[in-house]
Design brief:
The protein has two domains: about 70 residues, no CATH class; about 90 residues, no CATH class. It is built from eight helices and four strands; from the N terminus they run ββαβαβαααααα. It has a four-stranded mixed β-sheet.
């Protein structure tokens, strides 16, 4: 297995065989990139779950262009993509101080074009709650964000501890 300059894994024929010998199904991996040692048509005919194989081709995109393409395609239900995240977060506020803090942070998130990230985090938290998945109480500078606290991403009330959102959104 190799990585390209974007950090994507590129599988060869030996990697695919090892997966199969270990009892792993290729269908569990979406859109696997394979190098030119793999005859995709032959593998696809033999293994129906291998239809997710994609021939790897070098790209002349910059890392910034590559990142932009990935970040513009969030895999979440349409209802979350359409969610007015600012309105939703503000609706969770109970006091004027909370409204001011969330408003300030939302402007910072908007300036950094991170509203899709907030929508995805809402989707992620909802999915974890629906499936009774437990996650941590908070870690690192993310606990400085009151918006993330209101979304349920972490359990640290940054207003109570007087943590500044700029610590997270530098």
């Amino acid at each position: 297995m190799q990585k390209d300059s974007y950090g994507q894994l590129i599988f060869n024929e030996k990697d695919l065989c090892n997966f199969l010998l270990q009892g792993k199904k290729l269908g569990n991996f979406s859109n696997m990139l394979v190098d030119d040692s793999v005859d995709i048509d032959s593998v696809t005919r033999v293994l129906e779950e291998s239809s997710n194989l994609i021939a790897y081709e070098e790209s002349d995109k910059s890392i910034e262009e590559f990142d932009h393409d990935l970040q513009s395609n969030w895999h979440m239900p349409q209802e979350y993509k359409d969610l007015d995240i600012a309105e939703y977060v503000l609706s969770l506020c109970e006091t004027q101080a909370e409204l001011q803090r969330c408003g300030h942070e939302l402007l910072l998130f908007q300036k950094k074009n991170l509203f899709d990230l907030l929508r995805y985090l809402k989707y992620l938290v909802d999915t974890m709650r629906e499936n009774d998945i437990i996650w941590g109480v908070g870690r690192g500078s993310s606990v400085a964000s009151y918006v993330l606290y209101k979304l349920g991403v972490h359990a640290v009330d940054s207003m109570y501890y007087d943590l500044k959102p700029e610590e997270f959104l530098r």
